[in-house]
Amino acid sequence: MHQIRSIIQYLINGSSLRAISRELHLSRKAVTGYSNRLKACSIPLEQLRELGDAELSAVVYLPVKEVVPDSRKEDFLSRTEYFIRELSRTGVTRLLLWKEYKKQYPAGYEYAQFCALLAHYIQTHNPSMRLLHQPAEVMMVDFAGDKLSYTNTATGEVIPCPVLVCVLPYSNYAFVKALANARLLSLINALNECVQFFGGVPYGLKTDNMKQIVIKASRYEPSITEAFNLWARHYHISIITARVAHPRDKASVENEVKIAYRRIYAPLRNETFFSLEALNQAITHQLNIHNTENFQRKDYSRMDYFLKEEKPLLQPLPASPFIIKHRASAKVQRNYHITLGEDWHHYSVPYGYIGKTVSVVYDAEVVEIYLQMQRIALHKRSYKKHGYSTLKEHMPEGHQRYFEQRGWTGEYFLKQAAAIGDATRSYIEGVLKGKHFTEQTYNACLGILRLSKHYGTDRLEAACRRALAGGVFTFRTINNILKNNMDKHPFSEQQELFKTPTHNNIRGADHYK
Question: What is the total count of domains within the chain?
Answer without folding.
Answer: 5
